[in-house]
């Protein structure tokens, strides 16, 4: 993206919709530095329940799949 200078500009409401945790749907993990509260790591992903077509092990017919939304790793 740096090569083409492309970026997404969200409103605060759009950003909250994408990143704020929602039970069973969106999960967000934020790691803060103990010293000064800076955000040093961030990951957001969403859960998608999927129907299993063929039982491979046991009686499981559903599976949860996680899809990465956004991440930022600092230091």
Describe this structure in words.
- The protein is mainly beta and 75 residues long.
- The protein has a domain at 25-73.
- Helices cover 11% and strands 43% of the residues.
- It has one helix and three strands.
- The protein has one helix spanning 12-19; strands at residues 26-32, 39-51, 62-73.
- The protein is elongated and about 50 Å long.
- The chain starts with 11 loop residues before the first helix and ends with a strand.
Describe, in short, the structure shown.
This protein is mostly beta strands and 75 residues long. It is built from 1 helix and 3 strands; from the N terminus they run H-E-E-E. The two termini are 21 Å apart.
Number of strands: 3
| Helix and strand pattern | HEEE
Query: Total helix count?
Result: 1
Biggest sheet: strand arrangement: 1-2-3
Q: Uncertain spans, ≥5 residues at pLDDT below 50?
A: none
The whole-angstrom Rg is: 17 Å
How helical, in percent, are the residues?
10-25%
Note the gap between the termini: 21 Å
SS content category: mainly beta
The outline comes out as elongated
Strand-residue fraction? 35-45%
Q: Give average pLDDT, whole number.
A: 83
Largest sheet: 3 strands, antiparallel
What order do the helices and strands come in, and which of them pair?
Blueprint: H1 12-19, E1 26-32, E2 39-51, E3 62-73
Antiparallel strand pairs: 1-2, 2-3
Keywords:
mainly beta, 1 helix, 3 strands, elongated
């Amino acid at each position: 993206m740096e090569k083409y200078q492309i970026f997404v500009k969200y409103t605060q409401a759009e950003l909250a919709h994408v990143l704020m945790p929602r039970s069973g749907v969106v999960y967000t993990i934020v790691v803060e530095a103990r010293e000064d509260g800076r955000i040093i790591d961030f990951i957001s992903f969403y859960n998608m329940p999927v129907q299993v077509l063929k039982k491979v092990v046991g009686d499981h017919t559903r599976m949860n799949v996680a899809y990465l939304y956004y991440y930022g790793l600092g230091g």
